[in-house]
Amino acid sequence: MHASTQAALTWRRSSFSGDGNNCVEVAAAPAGVGVRDSKNPDGGIIRLTSPAWRRLSARAKAGDLDL
Question: Residue 51 sits in which domain range?
Fold first, then answer.
């Protein structure tokens, strides 16, 4: 994702995150969803297709990814 595209995205984080920067942020992107680390917003972004994002978030909500 180009820097200009990244800057134009509206990033959000879960309300469960509190005031800390210890979470991920997501943004709707032209070809799906962008995911980035809130501690390093200028770092890399993972781009997921919409179907891949839905699968990932469903598994996370179900607790399938808990360590």
Answer: 3-61
Compute the Cα dihedral for 55, 18, 15, 12 and give only its sign. negative
Tens digit of each residue's pLDDT, the chain (67 residues): 555 455 689 999 877 776 666 788 999 988 899 999 888 888 889 999 999 999 999 999 999 998 8
Reduced to 3 states, what is the DSSP secondary structure of residue 2? Answer: coil
User: 10 lies in a domain?
Assistant: yes
* Total of domains in the chain: 1
DSSP 4-53: HHHHHS--B--GGGTTSS-SEEEEEETTEEEEEETT-TTS--EEE-HHHH
Q: What pLDDT, on a 0 to 100 scale, did the predictor assign at position 63? A: 94
